[in-house]
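seq:
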Amino acid sequence: MGRGGGGKRRLPPPPLFDYHFNWQQRLRRPLPDSVKFALRNFEQIWIADGSTLEALFRKLKSLEDLKPGQLAGKICTVIDLITRKPVEVWFHTNPAASDTNFEAALLNLLPPKTLILLDRGFYHFQFLQQVINQEVHFITRLKAKASIQYLKIFSYDHSVKDRLIQLGTVRRGAPVLTLRLIEIKVGKTSYSYVTSVLDPQILPQKCCGRFISPEMES
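struct:
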C-alpha cells in the first residue's frame, strides 16, 4: 500500500496504546456478564472503530495546543474486547477518508465465529453482507431514516423492543439485509441497534445493548 498522499498503510499495534490506555489495569477488570454470555457462542469479540488523528490526538494534553488541521490522517483500530488490546491498526493519510477504505482489510482480518462491534462508518450494506457471508456477526447502531420492513416481533414493551426486520431497499445492487432491530430505552434516552444475530437466545436484547453502551450494564 502506498505511503504518499491519499495512500494507506498497515501499522502494527503501537506502544502508544499500552502507554496511554493502561491495558494491564484493564486486564484485571472482571468481564461483564454480557461478555461472558456472548463467549458461549463466539470465539472472539472485537471492536472496529475509525477516527481522525485530529480527534484522537486532541485528547492528549501534550498536543491540545496545536493549531487545527496539523494532525492529519485517518486511523482504524480493531480491538479485542476480552484482552482490551489492539488486534490491528490501519492508517490513511487523508483525514477525510471514509471508513469504507478499511473494509477490505477488515474482511481479510475477520475469522469465522467472531462478533464484531462496528461504528457507523461501516454502515455499508454490501460490506455487511460480506461480513455475514464469512460466518461473522456484527452489532452496529441504526442510522436515522433507515428503510425498514418489520417481519416478526420477539419482544415489545416500554423499555425493550426486539424485532426481526428487513433493512434497505433494492437500489444500485445493494442487498436487503435480514437483521434484528433492538431498541432499548434507559431513562429518557433511547438506543437503536441492528445485529446479524437473529436468535435472541444466542444474543439477548440487553446483552447486545450493553456492548455498545456500558451504562446499561447492571
